[in-house]
């Protein structure tokens, strides 16, 4: 379902939240660092450079992404997030733009945090823009008569794909944790023709791409493109502003 090359078309914009997330992790010498959904591995190497003495574990549910990560020298493997469990030496866990794909992921957080050892850090970031015009237009088109039959079984994510910052804070904050939760809306300046369409083609549209053959996929994109141009008009200089909200949470379990 995933196309690593398409995902990396906007690598700079997608990487910025990752760096802001791990900037809040104050681990000095972790024993084990986990990239919980490593994607194409372009950012996993950053974790290896920051904590060179740690044992690094990277995995993703997409075989295509794992192959791309391996091509970058990352020892990644295919594994579903739902099947992952921390061990007694898991001192840092990073989940960057992953959990929005996992229904009921709040339940996983309630399992993972108690299992982490004293001194551990858990850091997550998820998109918070599922009620943005880009996603509303995708859902509206997918439910029209032309597409309803082919896409009826596709679970198109809405605003409830992620929780609110307060809900994450409530789940992560316990007697054993110190929690930092915040949100940021990036006003991303995109370039090129139909840049918002290209952006969502690498993420939000992946389930739709997987459900359609090549011809229908081209037609769906052709119908979606003018809607996105209206929602996100190009500026006179040809660039396009694309607001993108993200939610961050970092939980630390102090050793004492």
TrEMBL record:
Q: Which reaction does it catalyse?
A: trans-aconitate + S-adenosyl-L-methionine = (E)-3-(methoxycarbonyl)pent-2-enedioate + S-adenosyl-L-homocysteine
Q: Name one GO biological process term.
A: methylation
Query: Keywords, A to Z?
Result: Cytoplasm, Methyltransferase, S-adenosyl-L-methionine, Transferase
Which GO MF term does the entry hold, naming one? trans-aconitate 2-methyltransferase activity
Q: Which domain of life is it from?
A: Bacteria
Q: Which InterPro entries match?
A: SAM-dependent_MTases_sf, Trans-aconitate_MeTrfase, Trans_acon_MeTrfase_C
Q: Where in the cell?
A: Cytoplasm
Name the EC number(s): 2.1.1.144
State the PANTHER family in the record.
TRANS-ACONITATE 2-METHYLTRANSFERASE (PTHR43861:SF1), TRANS-ACONITATE 2-METHYLTRANSFERASE-RELATED (PTHR43861)
Q: What does this protein do?
A: Catalyzes the S-adenosylmethionine monomethyl esterification of trans-aconitate.
Name-wise, this protein is: Trans-aconitate 2-methyltransferase
Q: Origin organism of this chain?
A: Nocardia tenerifensis
User: Corresponding gene?
Assistant: tam
